[in-house]
């Protein structure tokens, strides 16, 4: 079978569903192929920051998110390796915590409602250019052989190991990233925040960290990020290694007495790389397929949804005009570079700071004493304020207590 469309989207995570929905609403014929059958588990901290929450509102899925039982997140509690801690409060809107299997199913359903033809259990296996159109080979689960589908434009929203990026020859500059090991845990009591809102938690040790998000039903997502050598040292005993690591975090060990694992441990990695380009003739990359950053700062869903918002106007202009050749799509690349440079910079700066015990301790003591600085910082990290508001020497000096 050969089917044709204006746009084929590979991947039905936040980036793919948001891009597909917006293109379909603008009148394009869009087909989306998703490898898994939803709802599916996705290794993630399950935290949606305020910037991403605003993007969900713009997509029109706020009611569905609220109905799903998502819990508002009022801030972030950060615990350092030497016992210092600060809770940073969002000033305006909260974020959400909800399982990605729920969020992603909401977004994929929204894409289908917008008119996207959605195929699940459908893996994009190859992408090739044939004249002015792109041909995509799709392998359907349980069926032999691949089917060919054609479109003017292919959007690669197929995550960390994007097959579309590979086909376009856009390889990521590989960086040494951490690995993550996460699970769902029952019986871990939330720290409790102001006005009944939860706070997310980040617990730091010199070379690793643990994120906690409280979910509906008394379950918490507890995810570790650590180096490959640590996991290799577990010698296959992942469950035991996971719990041993959790108990070594000073801010967690006393609270884990009644906790029990509610789901199997899931791993991901290595994480973190950056692709130098995210367009080619007939191809655009969005979400993790375009850029990936370590999840420490919880910005991945924001980058996926905002990236979709940046991609769509360029895609529409190119489809209406001379066609989606690289030169026409380059405007998207430039917009991303402009808008995301500060976001990526914050992530890099905080990675350095977080794993420097003396500096992290100093900053946490200062932020605990000056909640206004904490609120300014978390607004920028939470993509609710311009990154440059905190990437100024004056702010950094105040946050470190130098000024
Ligand atoms: C452990 C961990 C914790 C994280 N925690 C957070 C957090 O708390 N908050 C946050 O904002 N970000 C977090 N992130 C980052 C966040 O998960 C990603 O940035 C986000 O999922 C990117 O969305 P996406 O749509 O680009 O990719 P994905 O969500 O990965 O979606 C890609 C989709 O493509 C499908 N796919 C893959 N290959 C193919 C193919 N060949 N054909 C068809 N379909 C395909 C996959 O099945 C998947 O559904 C975390 C990441 C990790 C690994």
Q: What can you tell me about this protein's structure?
A:
- With 403 residues, the chain is an alpha+beta fold.
- It has three domains: 2-42 and 101-174 and 273-347, FAD/NAD(P)-binding domain (3-Layer(bba) Sandwich), CATH 3.50.50.60; 59-98 and 176-268, D-Amino Acid Oxidase, Chain A, domain 2 (2-Layer Sandwich); 353-399, no CATH class.
- The chain contains 13 helices and 21 strands.
- The chain has helices at 14-25, 50-59, 62-67, 100-113, 163-167, 228-233, 238-247, 250-253, 300-320, 326-354, 357-369, 371-381, 393-399; strands at residues 2-10, 30-34, 47-48, 71-79, 85-89, 95-97, 117-120, 122-130, 133-140, 146-156, 172-174, 179-186, 198-205, 208-215, 219-226, 260-261, 266-268, 273-275, 279-280, 283-285, 291-292.
- The strands form three sheets. Strands 3, 4, 5, 6, 12, 13, 14, 15, 16 and 17 form a ten-stranded mixed β-sheet that branches.
- Helix 1 (14-25) runs parallel beside helix 9 (300-320) and helix 9 runs antiparallel to helix 10.
- The longest helix is centred in the last third of the chain and has 29 residues, at 326-354.
- It binds flavin-adenine dinucleotide (FAD).
- Flavin-adenine dinucleotide binds at residues 10-16, 33-36, 42-47, 49, 52, 123-124, 157-159, 163, 180, 182, 223, 268, 271, 287-289, 295, 298-302, 304.
